[in-house]
Design a protein that fits this description.
Radius of gyration: 17 Å
Oligomer: single chain
Largest sheet: none
Low-confidence stretches: none
Number of helices: 5
Shape: globular
Strand content: under 5%
C-alpha cells in the first residue's frame, strides 16, 4: 500500500521527478487540488450559486492545513521506505492484480 501512497503524492502534491519529502511539495499542485475541490463543492450545492473563488485568509488557512497533512504523509512515506519491503505486502499484491477494477468507480 505504500506504493499507492507514493504514487498519489507524486502525482498530486510533489514536484515532478522529485523525491517524496516536505521540501518537494509543489505549491502550484496544492493550489490546483484546492481549486478543483472548491469547484466540485460548488457543483454539489444545487441550491447555492457559486459566488466567489477560494481566496484570502480562508485559502491561506486551508493551504497551510493541506501542506501540513501532505508533509506528514511525506514523512510517513520516508519512514516506511526505510523499514518496509513492498514485496511482503499481501494487500498490495492483491491490489495490483485488480487495480483497474478497484479504482475505476472512483476515477
Amino acid at each position: 500500500m505504500l506504493e499507492i501512497l507514493e504514487e498519489f503524492l507524486a502525482d498530486t502534491y510533489v514536484k515532478d521527478q522529485a523525491v517524496i519529502c516536505e521540501e518537494n511539495i509543489d505549491q502550484a499542485k496544492v493550489n490546483r487540488v484546492m481549486d478543483e475541490f472548491w469547484d466540485r463543492a460548488a457543483e454539489n450545492m444545487n441550491s447555492v450559486k457559486k459566488t466567489s473563488d477560494l481566496m484570502g485568509s480562508l485559502r491561506m488557512n486551508l493551504s497551510k492545513k493541506v501542506h501540513k497533512i501532505v508533509s506528514i504523509l511525506c514523512d510517513y512515506v520516508s519512514l516506511m521506505q526505510a523499514s518496509f519491503n513492498s514485496s511482503d505486502d499481501a494487500a498490495l499484491v492483491e491490489y495490483k492484480k485488480d487495480q483497474n477494477t478497484v479504482i475505476a468507480p472512483y476515477g
